Amino acid sequence: MGHHNTSTRVQKHIGDPTEGLVDEVSYEVLEEIFQDIQGDLRFDHELNGCLNCGICTATCPAAHYYDFSPREIVQLLWTENLEGIYDAMQEKIWSCAQCYTCAARCPFGNSPGGLIMLMRETAIKHGMESAKAVLRPFSRVMLKLISTGNQLSPDMINPDHFADWGPNICKIDAPLKLLRQAIPMPTLNTIKTAWETNLKTSVELYTIWEDTGVLDQLETIDENLFDVIVDIMEEKRDDWDDYLEELEEEG
C-alpha cells in the first residue's frame, strides 16, 4: 500500500535569520509573537492562501526602492516560518507604505498590507526595538495632540518652513485665511484658535486612548512620554471634575 502524503505547508525551520541578533529569541517567544498575529480577528480575512505569483511585489511601490517584498511577508505567514516572521519584523515591515495596491491586485484576495499592519501592532505590543526606532519621531505628535488639541495649523505653512514643496509652495500665498473665513463653519484656521483645546474634548480623547489600549502600547514604546501624558491628563481630569462640581453648585 502506498504511503499517505504527510507534507505540510508549515515550515518549522528555514535557515536562521535571527542569528547574530543582540538578544537570542527562544522558540516560545517566536511562537507567542506569531500567535498574537494569527489570533487577531483580521488575520483570516487578510490571508486566504498564496500562489506565490508575485503580483503583489511587482505592483508594490515600496518594493522598487527598499529590500521589501509583500510576497515574502505572505509566504512567511502562510508557512508559519516563525524565525522569518521575527526577522521581517525587525526592519522590512516598516518599509510598507500601506497603499494596499497589493490587496487590490492579489488573485487570492490577500491583503499583505493588512497583514503587515498586524505585524506592526504586534511589534509594538512586544516592545521591539524596531518599533521604538520607527515611532520615536511621532512621540511629540501625541504629546502635542493631547496637550494642545492640534499638531499643525494652516497658517504655520509658509515657504520658509516647507521649501521642499518646490514650486507648489507658491499656492499658499493665496488669501487662504479670507477663503477659510468664507466657509460657513468653524475652521480653526490660525495658531491661536487651532491650539485652544476644549477641556471636555481633551479628556474624552485621553479616555479613548486609555480604553483602547493606546496608552498601554505607548508605555511599552516610550515610558517617559507615557509618564508626561499621564501627568498632563490627570491635571486636566481634575480641572474637568472641578468644572462639573461648579456647575452642580450653580444649578
Features:
single chain; mainly alpha; Fumarate Reductase Iron-sulfur Protein, Chain B, domain 2; 14 helices; globular
Structure write-up:
By secondary structure, this protein is an all-alpha fold. It has 2 domains: 27-126, Orthogonal Bundle (Fumarate Reductase Iron-sulfur Protein, Chain B, domain 2); 136-250, no CATH class. Helices cover 52% and strands 0% of the residues. The chain contains 14 helices and no strands. It has helices at 27-38, 43-46, 55-58, 70-78, 82-88, 101-105, 112-125, 129-135, 139-148, 176-181, 191-194, 199-211, 214-221, 223-250. α9 (139-148) runs parallel beside α14 (223-250) and α12 packs across α14 (223-250).
Describe the protein's topology.
Layout: H1 27-38, H2 43-46, H3 55-58, H4 70-78, H5 82-88, H6 101-105, H7 112-125, H8 129-135, H9 139-148, H10 176-181, H11 191-194, H12 199-211, H13 214-221, H14 223-250
Helix pairs in contact: 1-5, 4-7, 9-14, 12-14, 13-14
Q: Assembly state here?
A: single chain
Low-confidence stretches: 1-7, 13-22
- Percentage of helical residues? 40-55%
Number of strands: 0
